[in-house]
């Protein structure tokens, strides 16, 4: 399984050694899971000693938290950015699904860790990430509600529809690989059409 | 996290001790992942000695394989059953999504293991399960193609549409919990409506 991680995953994390540790942690969590990974595995993969790891992260949990919180914050910022643009609810939903799906395809290795290792976080850290998830869901639900109000969308249950929209994108991380027939961008475009139909829009 | 497993998960597995080991394995794989689980953990949770485990399963991999293959075989049988019924493509798709989503909600703990621990299988065992997955996808794609031919559905890409239909159902296992607002059955019904829209059907 190819585990190539995009170089620009955590542009804001400094110094470079911390980014290297996060990449090594993602690869190991994705390969064998959080519980079967040791801090020694991560340090070794990053070409560092366990002691050097602790300079940057106090624990394995701290690494998972940083990866998980970072991924959710990036997603929330992207969702808010798209929703805040000018344009009809249809145009913004199309852009939102396009970018969300593209992110989950392109960054499927890190996305798998972000989405599927959440339950390994301790309660307090989990609560922070869960709050970010709720804000993402609420933002998508808000855009659907806007479209319902102006007649672009018709849905029986706005909350459920928001969840379905996000589900389609998140599940891309499970099945997408570099061997997929479609590029992340093309996939995002086609999923946007499917989502607009699902929301009862006639503009697709 | 509640880990209550439905009692009728593996009605065909005999003797009862083997079923008990499979349930214990599912709970542990779901909680800490395949790699962090030992055969001792599984045996202890099932109230047995490690030696007694080996009477039924030669290894931890054999348990995961049995769980994974069993889950996929059940799903394939269900999909083939629904598709083989009389009725229009729309009716059969509605029934299919209803049952698929209901299964993933009701059995979300085992479904998570079936869906997300696949990569831990050795190559040969993985190939068997991957072949079952392809048959499931092809069956759904076949039903979509039938609907396209008789004018019930319009989709730009039948293969992609089949994947999206299955994605919506599979991702239910990730987020569903006993605290969810909707029953598995109600969720299945509402997702069926969303899927019919996605497939360009006017009958919803």
Automatic annotation (TrEMBL), chains A, B:
The UniProt record lists the keyword DNA-binding: yes
Classification via Gene3D superfamilies: Tetracycline Repressor, domain 2
Keyword Signal part of the UniProt annotation: no
InterPro entries linked to this entry: Homeodomain-like_sf, HTH-type_TetR-like_transc_reg, HTH_TetR, KstR2_TetR_C, Tet_transcr_reg_TetR-rel_C_sf
Name under which the protein is recorded: Transcriptional regulator
Pfam families xref list: TetR_C_24 (PF17932), TetR_N (PF00440)
Cross-referenced PANTHER family: HTH-TYPE TRANSCRIPTIONAL REGULATOR RUTR, HTH-TYPE TRANSCRIPTIONAL REPRESSOR BDCR
Domain HTH tetR-type: 15-75
Keywords: DNA-binding
Superkingdom of the organism of origin: Bacteria
DNA-binding positions: 38-57
